Please model this.
Amino acid sequence: LTMLEEYVARRGGGLLLLGGRRALAEGGWSGTPVAEALPVRLAPEQAADSLFHAPLTVTAARAAATHPITRMEPDSAVTEWDALPPLTAFNRVGELKPGATALLTGTGPGLPAAMPVLAHQRYGAGRAAVFAVQDSWLWQMHADIPLEDETHERLWRQALRWLVADTPDPVVAQLPAEPVAPGEVVEVSGVVRDDRFSGVNRAAVMAEVTSPAGETRVVPLEWTVARDGEYRGRFTADQLGPYAVTLTARYDSAVVTSSPAVVPVTPSREEYFGARMRRGTLERVAAETGGRFYTADRVASLAEDLTYADRGVTVVEELELWDAPVAFALILILLSVEWMVRRRRGLA
Model:
């Protein structure tokens, strides 16, 4: 049981537990390591025949319309889960765990409220789901279901694809989730596992980085020592556009390559979301504009530096005439002299 739980959490596998007379709580799975991975809480151990055979009407939860498991085709003979016949054998499960999602719910006798019938959640590196019914085959064999209807087949095809879709590869490249700005350093992480999916610490790992212009360079990655199989390296993104990174790991006689990972390089928008001092940017602006950069321990000299600054500042000050008597008298004298001159010359 511990190995099953670790298979999901560490290996990144997919786990689906089905209903049945001796499944889930009725089968004694409560309190086991596997129960920790499930998206629903299991009640304490119940009798194998505890309300197992009873009609259950299944309806779709809100998330069912878009989820890969329960999404229906518009041209199907049955386009709504509510139109399917009731099932007759189910296991009682508890409420959803935080972070879990219900896709199908059910109501029936002995149930005080709608019960999760099909639910899933992320667990560690993998995913786990519970389908707490035994006779979903009724959705194929019931007399009310048209022969051409493929709801049952599609449900199980989609469920199996979903279980294995995100299973990690032996070599995985990991890049920053957020875009980076031109000139920033991009951290590249890689995880290398062998055929038993145990971390490999003796590998020679290289990252092939392709720029938006198509230029390729090789960046070596080193083992971090902190975790088995984890390697890290870095490169500087100096162009706008997507950078593609592919890892190649060589150990013993094996050569394994990862799927490409992409990090977009766009103009930085950090100033709109991060209220912190950017010393490098401020020093550059001060140098380019003839200013100075001050820190808290130098701000005391700011007033004196402004007094002796090379570039002056013009200040306009307006005063009323009667607050400047000398200027007022001078203006009166000038106007009087002008009037006398005009009068002598016959201009006034």
Remarks:
- The chain has a mean pLDDT of 86.
